[in-house]
């Protein structure tokens, strides 16, 4: 049972790490996140982090982030972004992307 779970987790991580075209809502959220995180994340890692975040985000989170003005983020959206960054799926995706 553990082997099967590990295999499924490995396949899911590989699929998440594979670069796929973003949906419209993911792309919109990415355009908001990129300038917000640009001051804090090295340029060579920024695109990977943003892609991993939007691929891992739920539809509600994408709508919330996409509707925001990156120049004036509100506290609720910042909290959503912080939760998203801390999500294990984002870390796994980013780790896989950085191995490539």
Structural class by secondary-structure content: mainly alpha
Approximate shape: globular
Q: Report the helical percentage.
A: over 70%
Enumerate the spans where pLDDT stays under 50 for 5 or more consecutive residues. Answer: 1-17
| End-to-end distance | 29 Å
Number of domains: 1
List keywords for this structure.
100 residues; mainly alpha; 6 helices; disordered N terminus
What does this structure look like?
With 100 residues, this protein is mainly alpha-helical. It has one domain (2-99). The chain has helices at 2-17, 24-37, 43-56, 59-66, 75-86, 88-99. Helix 1 (2-17) crosses helix 6. The longest helix is centred in the N-terminal third of the chain and has 16 residues, at 2-17. The termini are far apart. The relative contact order is 0.17. The model is unreliable at 1-17 (pLDDT under 50).
Topology:
Blueprint: H1 2-17, H2 24-37, H3 43-56, H4 59-66, H5 75-86, H6 88-99
Helix pairs in contact: 1-6, 2-3, 2-4, 3-6
Brief digest:
76% of the residues lie in helices and 0% in strands.
């Amino acid at each position: 049972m553990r082997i099967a779970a590990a295999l499924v987790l490995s396949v899911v991580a590989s699929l998440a790490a594979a670069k796929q075209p973003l949906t419209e809502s993911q792309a919109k959220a990415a355009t908001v996140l990129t300038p917000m995180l640009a001051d804090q994340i090295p340029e060579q890692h920024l695109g990977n982090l943003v892609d991993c975040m939007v691929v891992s985000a739920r539809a509600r989170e994408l709508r919330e982030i996409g509707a925001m003005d990156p120049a004036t983020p509100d506290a609720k959206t910042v909290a959503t972004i912080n939760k998203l960054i801390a999500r294990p799926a984002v870390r796994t995706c980013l780790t896989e992307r950085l191995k490539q």
